[in-house]
Amino acid sequence: MYYSKFNRLSNRDMDKINLTLIGGYGGMGRVFTRFFKANGCSVTIAGPTEKKGKAVAEEFGVTYLKDNVKACENADVVVVTVPIRFTNEVIKEVAPHVKPGALLMDLTSVKQEPVELMKKHSQNGVEVVGCHPVFGPRVGGVEGQVFVLTPTEKGRWFDWLKKILEDNKAKIVESTPKEHDHAMAIVQGLTHYTYISLGKTFRELGFNVKESRKFSSPIYDLMLDMIGRIVGQDPSLYAEIQMSNPEIPKIHAEFLKSAKELAETVKEKDEKAFINVMTASAKHFGDTESAMGRSDKAINALVYELKKLNALVGKKVCVKHIYSGVMHYGEVKEVEPENLVIADGGVERKLKLSNIRLTSRSETKEYRREKYGVSARDYSILTPASADAEFISKLIERLFDVFQVEVKDVYAGDKIPEGMQSICLGVTQFRDNLKQSDESLTSFFNKVGWSLR
Question: Cα(266)–Cα(273) distance, rounded to whole angstroms?
Fold first, then answer.
């Protein structure tokens, strides 16, 4: 029985699973190297580019092998994650060497031919699952992301893969390779095609995109960002997506036909025909109300952080560059439509709003601890004996600009008035704010009637 080793496959068994990613050092390869390693698998990455492979292996603490075949021979799971143009060739190379009882899967955005090749070239007893993560490497993680799975059979490995994705809060869609490719011809093919065409139109018109933002509506801003997101990424990848799916040319032809007909309607100033087109399109679209609600949320998100930052002018914040990971902490001096100006130690920095995010409270604390250092001081306070010392420590940590607070001692013996207790709090404070922090704490204790001893 091929699957006897995995009859009771569960999360507890994951440390026994040897997983090989063919091409695990590319954009998506890195995402899934990190993902499978974080979920307990023993990961090997493989591919011909030795310098990149070794660098990624060292970064994530995994094994690198240059030889694809050798890397997959003893693997329980083999994942092909290479550029689309190499996928079929790599499948033919490695599939015959995947051991019976193992899983062979791919992560490409086309499914019919890769799945057929995995079935054709693998040994009996190898489970084959087509997998398409419908997102790019900039997303970074799987939470909330869509995965289309096209299994040739729903065996134990399919259950394992589905569970590990669901445990990480991914959205699973089960499909057939043919259904997947037809849907992706529109979801990816038509969407990318229209955005790239718009970008090309701007260029042909000599249109100044940056200047046009002065006149923009929220919807136009969103559209520009989506165009920029597409045309600013790897053109080879997008060319492969357009040219590898056999369904896409038919979709292009229908789109161009519809666009030409609508252009003729406008040219002829046929308002009735134009209205009929929009009305029929809305009817076919279905729930336009929900679409408006979701787009309203996207529009509101554009201004939410701007409003939040405006309310913080004169206060200190910590922000993180969403691509480089570099963090900055300082006083908000000014919030411009596209930039944040913060001052740290007398040095002003102008940061592009689209490239930064406000950090969480815990991220900010850790960054300040590393940058400025911390200093510990004990505060002994007299409180009613009924007061909860742990609650007080958590309250102070929440209300004040300190790194952490711990209860070091609670005493109700000699020299402590009846009905009272002495609580010793160890307060770890940031060195860049020692004086202000001490003054704030002392003032608070006095105002609530907790005498300092």
Answer: 9
Whole-number Å distance between alpha carbons of 88 and 106: 10
- Residue length, the chain? 453
Q: Which CATH superfamily is domain 373-447 in?
A: Ferrodoxin-fold anticodon-binding domain (3.30.70.380)
Query: Contacts by 10-17 with C-beta closer than 8 Å and gap 24+?
Result: 11/40, 11/163, 11/164, 11/167, 14/39, 14/40, 14/41, 14/164, 15/40, 15/41, 15/42, 16/76, 17/41, 17/42, 17/76, 17/77
Query: In Å, how far are 349, 351, 358 from 343, measured between CA atoms?
Result: 6, 11, 15
Residue 405's φ and ψ, nearest 5 degrees, are -135, 135
- Whether residue 72 contacts residue 44, with contact meaning beta carbons closer than 8 Å, is answered with no
**Are the C-beta atoms of 56 and 46 separated by less than 8 Å?**
no
Q: For the domain made up of 4-175, give the CATH fold.
A: Rossmann fold (3.40.50)
Q: Which residues of 260-284 are buried (b: 16+ CB within 10 A; e: fewer)?
A: eeeeebeeeeeeeeeeeeeeeeeee
Pick the CATH number of 309-368 from 2.130.10.10, 3.90.79.10, 3.40.50.1000, 2.30.30.100: 2.30.30.100
The Cα-based distances of 252 to 21, 177, 256 in angstroms read 34, 21, 6
Quote the pTM value.
0.70
Please, what are the averages of pLDDT over each run of 10 residues along the chain (453 residues)? Answer: 41 69 91 94 95 94 96 96 94 97 96 97 96 88 94 94 96 96 95 97 95 88 92 92 93 97 97 96 92 87 82 93 89 90 89 89 94 95 94 95 95 89 95 93 92 84
User: What CATH class is the domain 180-285?
Assistant: mainly alpha
What span, in angstroms and rounded, lies between the C-alpha atoms of 75 and 335?
Answer: 53
Extents of the domains making up the chain: 4-175, 180-285, 309-368, 373-447
